[in-house]
Amino acid sequence: MTSAETARPDAEQPEAKQAGEPTVIDPAGSPPPGSAPPGAEPKVPYRPGSLELLTALLIVVALFRGPLVSLFDTPAMQTWATVFVSIVIQAIPFLVLGVVISAVIAVFVPPSFFARALPKHPAAAVPVAGMAGVALPGCECGSVPIAGGLLRRGVTPAAAFAFLLSAPAINPVVLVATAVAFPNNPEMVFARFFASAATAMLMGWLWLRLGKSEWIRLPQRPDLAGLSKWGAFWASCRHDFVHAGGFLVIGGITAAVLNVTVPPSWLQAIADYPLLAVFVLALLAVLLSICSEADAFVAASLNQFSLTARLAFLVVGPMIDLKLFAMQIGTFGRSFAFRFAPATFFVAIGVSVLVGWLVL
Amino acid sequence: MNREAQSVLLLLVGGAVLRISVSDVYLRYVKEGLRPFLIVAGVLLVAIAVATLVRELFGAQAAQEEAAAEHHLEGSHGDDDGHGHSHHGPRVAWLLVLPVFATFLIAPPALGSYAASRGGTAVVQQPTSEFAPLPKTDPAEISVVEYFTRAVWDKGASMKDRNIKLTGFITPRPGGGVYLTRIMLSCCAADGRPIKVGLSGEQATGLEADTWVEVVGQYDPKTEKDKANDQAIPFFEARTVKQVPAPKRPYE
Q1: Chain-chain contact of B110 with A82 (C-beta, under 8 angstroms)
Q2: What percent of chain A stands above pLDDT 90?
Q3: Fewer CB near the last or first residue (10 Å), C or N of chain A?
Q4: How many angstroms away from the CA of A157 is the closest CA of chain B?
Q5: Contact B191/A329, CB-based, under 8 Å?
Q6: CA nearest B125 in A: which residue?
Q7: Which of A41, A71, A88, A305 to probe by mutation at the B interface, max B CB count within 10 Å?
Q8: B191 contacts in A (CB within 8 Å)?
């Protein structure tokens, strides 16, 4: 946990942080033995928490608004700011929609539903789970814990992983966002859907052939069962939006910087080498870690690049990026993540190039 | 970043979204059709923030449960046996202040001559159907994109001997003179491409960059190549040039 978290006056288990050990909390939510007994006031000295920090930041910015605004007096900075704001504003409705629907599913759909709905035979379960991603809008943030939950309920790992990869990539919110982002190229929507679904299923089958269960290490992770339904709903919305929003801002900043500072001829030079362009954008997708509901708008702004290269950006991003990599390590362990992530990256690139060549 | 700070942040983001979508400021960044969705999204964000704060302040029991669950929720990221990428989550959230500051403090303007000079003029597809006749008014008012398309793909045949009125902003032309420009969006301002029309005639002098003007004149068969990307740029012979305030919808 970061210090900002443990500095909260209501921090409950400071003693549980043994060196390097993950916080093990039992589902009932009671503190583990050894921490302060419930009801007793923990004697934590007051340290400013995030709320105070945020307030201080707002006050400082308000006080220094003159000099800060004059920083943006040049046409270059204003253009940067306009591009940045437009990507964020364009993406917010889709992000909010995805987060709300995802929270509804997480809270009001029992996890056992997924386990019952899949065919018994693993090889058949893979495509079904892969296509189930269509029905379940949600950011990548949601799919990793859901896949972990599926594994715990006995769903075959290959199917769980196919779902993990497809749900963020082929759900309706993402497809609509893609359609809105590329109004003159509706074939991008089909290409994204097809390439993402194919990659998800290929990875599932690949796991069936080559995967070993000892690579997976599932820590104890109780879900939101400890909260009331509405409490869980609001918590899930807030948690997901705040996570995804931060990465959206990074994506917006990067796109704005590319738009304003990099000479168009450089981008054109990269874009002129098709395979290089594909690889560069795929790498960019990994670095940016943008939520899948929003990445189409960033891709649309990169108009020097071919549609195939941008397709690679859109297919790779929801399946593997820095944020997902960290979450996969957290949920399934290092052995798994270090094998699964690079494999996903290259399979996704390969499938995108193929689909792009066929369709775009 | 704790729950209260996150809620305040959501309130700010929702407030920023509502502020620009209720006024016309949003048109500088996105298309008109997004307005209802922006308003709904803003309201939802404010609702999430308020719901969390209300539970915080008035439901001590609920708040405790949520505090416990927050540990579980955050813990799923933190449990990563020491990999350097633990805790992207809450720290990254701080970045959400940036769009809030940008909208409230800077309120960046619509894209103008700087953006237009950076890129080559946009490629306009050949239209698949016949050109409709121009509006019957004199002068016929059409969009800059429309003029561009008719000039490049039809060699101005549909505009012969007609007075035409165009509205756009001024971009300096390398080598002297000016372009009448509009920015064309496919999705939002981030992917805007400029449409440039060269202005000929004596009236088209002494005009400053980013000034919005209404130009009345006739089709000029002269064309040139945009140095940035070799696309054709048509010309327009300006008879009268009138300065106008920036329109509500700056993009085409």
Answers
A1: yes
A2: 18
A3: C
A4: 19
A5: no
A6: A184
A7: A88
A8: 300-301, 303
B87 has pLDDT over 80: no
Give contacts of B80 with chain A, Cβ < 8 Å: 22, 326, 329-330
Q: Is A162:A319 a contact under the CB 8 Å cutoff? A: no
Provide the domain count of chain B: 2
For β-strands B140-141 and B212-225, DSSP reports them as unpaired
CATH code assigned at B197: 2.40.50.140
Cβ contacts of A347 within 8 Å, gap of 6 or more: A199, A202, A203, A206
Domain count, chain A: 1
Q: Which of B10, B39, B81, B251 to mutate to test the interface with A (most CBs of A within 10 A)?
A: B81
Q: For residue B201, is it within any domain?
A: yes
Decide if B190 and A83 are in contact by the 8 Å CB cutoff: yes
Rounded CA-CA distance B92/A249 in Å is 9
| Closest alpha carbon to A299 in A112, A108, A57, A90 | A90
Q: B82: which 2 tokens? A: 């020491």
Is A226 or A152 the better-scoring residue by pLDDT?
A152
The count of other CB atoms within 10 Å of the CB of residue A36 is: 16
B106 in contact with A, Cβ within 8 Å = yes
User: Which structure tokens are listed for B31?
Assistant: 């298309």
Residue A162, domain extent: 79-212+230-359
pLDDT tens digits along B98-134: 999 998 888 898 998 888 888 777 777 777 777 888 8
Q: Are A255 and B190 within 8 A, CB to CB?
A: yes
- Do residues A11 and A42 make contact, with C-beta atoms less than 8 angstroms apart? yes
How many helices (H) and strands (E) chain B has is answered by 7, 6
pLDDT at residue number A10: 36
pLDDT digits (tens, 9 = 90+) for B155-178: 888 888 889 999 999 999 888 888
Distance of CA A268 to the CA centre of its chain: 29
Q: Do B80 and B55 reside in the same domain of the chain?
A: yes
Render the burial of A115-151: b for 16+ CB within 10 Å, e for the rest: beebeeebeebbbebbbbbbebbbbbbbbbbbbbbbb
Whether the complex's predicted ipTM is more than 0.90 is answered with no
Does the residue A5 lie in any domain?
no
Closest-CA residue to A228 (of B55, B7, B71)? B55
Length of chain A equals 360
The span from the CA of B152 to the CA of B183, in Å, is 17
Nearest residue, CB atoms, A264 vs list B5, B65, B119: B119
- For an interface test with B, the pick among A72, A85, A288, A336 (most B C-beta atoms closer than 10 Å) comes out as A85
End-of-domain residue from the set B89, B108, B127 = B108
* Packing angle of the helix pair B35-58, A75-108 (nearest 10 deg): 60
According to the model, what pLDDT value does residue A187 have?
A: 93
**Domain shared by B103 and B39, yes or no:** yes
